[in-house]
Write a structure and sequence with these properties.
- By secondary structure, this protein is an alpha/beta fold.
- Helix content is 29%, strand content 17%.
- A 6-stranded mixed sheet has the order 2-3-1-4-5-6, sandwiched between helices.
Length: 199
């Protein structure tokens, strides 16, 4: 369905990010499960067009079907690159690293191939991480992995992120069409009824 799938817990800012870098107008509100079906938006970088999909928020147990998890994870399967968005603001009292690990576990439980798919880690809502301590702690726990810090609200870091998506996508193969068995519709038998006129 798209080149890039935006993945993360509900209310981490995926829809806001999509609205900032594309012309998409997703519903944005400060509560969980605002997005119930993927929103798509196109972005042009260096004369190339890519499609981003804002995947509805995943929750723990998604791989077993919790919160329509199977449906949402199947959407992720139909993308080439995962952009994993994490809320580092701490406003909701959640630990960004634990959130990251939880979503990664759901991807692995659902499909090893999906777990191994290329990923860009995005620390969002840095505008609310006033001292930068949450971002610093998150990066330390993810040593060896690149974390791109953004604020979708203030547009900080968005250029760096779009460049990173472009650099990753040009290295990847195009997605193959979904395999399906060929079929033919049965043709109607023209002799199975007749039309007549009555009085």
């Amino acid at each position: 369905i798209a080149d890039v799938g935006l993945v993360g817990f509900p209310n981490v800012g995926k829809s806001t990010f999509l609205s900032r870098v594309t012309n998409a107008k997703p519903k944005i509100a400060n509560y969980h499960f605002t997005t119930l079906s993927p929103n798509l938006g196109a972005i042009t970088i260096h004369d190339k067009n890519f499609v981003l999909a804002d995947i509805p928020g995943l929750i723990e147990g998604a791989a077993e079907g919790a919160g329509l998890g199977h449906d949402f994870l199947r959407h992720v399967e139909r993308t080439r690159l995962i952009v994993h968005v994490v809320d580092v603001s701490g406003i909701e009292g959640r630990d960004p690293y634990e959130d990251y690990v939880a979503i990664r576990k759901e991807l692995k439980d659902f499909s090893e191939e999906l777990y191994l798919r290329p990923e860009i880690i995005v620390a969002n809502k840095t505008d609310s991480d006033f001292e930068g301590e949450n971002l610093k702690a998150f990066k330390e726990k993810l040593k060896g992995k690149t974390v791109i810090a953004i604020s979708a609200l203030t547009k900080s870091g968005l250029k760096e992120l779009t460049e990173a998506m472009y650099a990753e996508l040009i290295k990847l193969d195009e997605l193959k069409p979904i395999e399906h068995e060929e079929f033919e519709y049965l043709r109607g038998d023209g002799d199975d009824f007749e039309v007549s006129r009555d009085d």
